[in-house]
Amino acid sequence: MTLFPIFSDLKNRPVLVVGGGEVAARKVQALLQAEALVTVGAPTLAPALRDAVAAGRIVHCPGRFNPAWLEQAWLVIAATDDRSANAEVYEAASARRLFCNVVDDPALSSFQVPAIVDRSPLVIAISSSGVAPVLARRLRERLESLLDQSLGALAGLAARYRGQIRERHRELGARRRFYDWLLDGPVATALRRARPQEAEAALRQALSQAEAPTPGRVVLVGAGPGDPGLLTLKALRALNEADVILHDRLVSAEVLALARRDAECIAVGKRPGEDHDATQARIHALMREQARAGRRVVRLKGGDAFIFGRGGEELEYLRAHGVDYEVVPGITAALACAAYAGIPLTHRDHAQTLQLVTAHCRGEEDGLDWAGLARSRQTVAFYMGVGQLEALAARLIAHGRAPDTPFALVENGSRPGQRVIGGPLSQLAALARQHGVAAPALLIVGEVAGLASQLAWFGTATQHTAPQAEARAA
Q1: Cα–Cα nearest to 355, from 445, 448, 447, 423
Q2: What's the distance, CA 24 to chain centroid?
Q3: Cis peptide before 47, with omega less than 30 degrees from 0?
Q4: Cα 336 to the center of its chain, rounded Å
Q5: Four-CA torsion 218, 222, 223, 227, nearest 10 degrees
Q6: How many other C-beta atoms lie within 10 A of the C-beta of residue 115?
Q7: Pairwise CA distance, residues 183 & 181, whole Å
Q8: In this structure, are residues 222 and 202 in contact, taking their beta carbons and an 8 Å threshold?
Q9: Is the preceding peptide bond at 440 cis, omega within 30 degrees of 0?
């Protein structure tokens, strides 16, 4: 973080603006909105500033910059068109330990004035640390279009009733649920319709009613393969509403960082020496226990919970024990890893069929249709197969897949450390050993895998080489 974000209370506090042009006038206008006591120092003033002086809204110090102007100031802005004059202001302010902003000159600024989205008392500030003001302005424009004007009135109403809300809902979870209702329910709707009296009446009525016990529930959320940008909006909302998050080992730290700060995060991946059935039983018990305690539980799984994620087993357990639930789908590894490796899973010229296969079956059963998996002109994506690459390749070839069929191993798909190892199916295990491929990695077999070397766009370039021993033999 280049700059420490801070919101300053400038009400009735002196602020000095050096410069009398249009840029200075814009800064003065923003300071007046913050109710600062503004002094402008400049030889001449733009019309807007002259009018403000005449109306008694600001004070004018005529002439070139004088360090004595700084004596009462809490904050300083230099907005002249002369860099040497701006530098003089900055140096004099720094000597007095005053924060100073030189407009459009980050090198001569101890603070930056951000782009503002104003829904007072809600204020959103966007800063690029002074290096890309156009980007900050563009983000501001987008936020302006997303945030309804009524949010300010809603924030003000919540502030006026904050004490009563805390008194009525002393338990943190209950208070949070009430605020969720306030932000999403009839109060917000009435304010959007410009009916403030109706909104306040709805709030007062809600505070006078007894709160019914809120049953806990579980939201089964697919976290995707690791890139936090691939989370759905519903997944992000669930993470920000959760009281407790039960997450798998492969859920990335970047995804977990998007959760509500005070949510309890519990890692529920397999423990050393623990078999998968015991792990799953422990997860089931945790979900039931937390939900019955009235907590909102997010069961966070890598990829998508319904594709080799035991999501079906977990819902069956929740239903059998009377626990309410919902499901938020995630982007499964095959879709994400293929896309980030530049591999189209289907292609008119190469693959009209896609099969998703797990290399791990319950009880180590293998009821796979190997003859069907070995057909040409299709794509097969193998999950959890890193430890069985030699056997997978041998069985596909034994059932008719050509030894020169392209494969791609996508390691850490969508994450900063992504690698893609490619080659012919007959050399799959040897190439994986040569490059030290480790889980998590997805195996893609089929003609489309050969396109990775041409269409790759993310992470380390595709490595498509023969094993070292074979290369020496050749």
Answers
A1: 445
A2: 36
A3: no
A4: 17
A5: -160
A6: 21
A7: 6
A8: no
A9: yes
Beta pairing partners, 77:
17, 101
Gyration radius (Cα) of the chain, Å? 31
Could you tell me the two tokens for 335? Answer: 């879709």
Residue 370's contacts (CB-CB under 8 Å, 6 or more residues apart) are 395, 396, 398, 399
Residue 454 CB contacts under 8 Å (≥ 6 apart), including other chains:
342
3-class DSSP state of 41 = strand
Q: Token digits for 222?
A: 């697919």
Q: Supply the DSSP string of 69-90, one letter for each residue.
A: GGTT-SEEEE--S-HHHHHHHH
Distance CA 406, CA 350 (A): 11
**pLDDT tens by residue, the chain, 474 residues:** 788 889 999 999 999 999 999 999 999 999 999 999 999 999 999 999 999 999 999 999 999 999 999 999 999 999 999 999 999 999 999 999 999 999 989 999 999 988 889 898 989 999 888 888 899 889 988 888 778 889 999 999 999 999 999 999 888 878 888 888 898 788 988 898 899 999 999 999 999 987 656 678 899 999 999 999 999 988 998 998 899 999 998 899 999 999 988 899 999 987 666 777 889 999 999 999 999 988 889 999 999 999 999 999 999 999 999 999 999 999 999 999 999 999 999 999 999 999 999 976 544 446 899 999 999 999 999 999 999 999 999 999 999 999 999 999 999 999 999 999 999 999 999 999 999 999 999 999 999 999 999 999 998 766 765 544 444 343
How far is C-alpha 9 from the geometric centre of its chain's CA atoms?
A: 30
| DSSP letter string, 207-232 | HHSPPPPPPPEEEEEE-BSS-GGG--
Give catalytic residue positions.
248, 270
Q: Would you state the torsion angle of the CA atoms of residues 16, 21, 26, 31, taken in this order, to the nearest 10 degrees?
A: 10
Length of the chain, in residues: 474
Q: Map tokens 């007959």 to a residue.
A: 426
Integer CA distances (angstroms), 390 to 28, 222, 394, in order: 71, 30, 6
Do 224 and 330 meet the contact criterion of CB atoms below 8 Å apart?
yes
Question: Three-state SS for 177?
Answer: helix
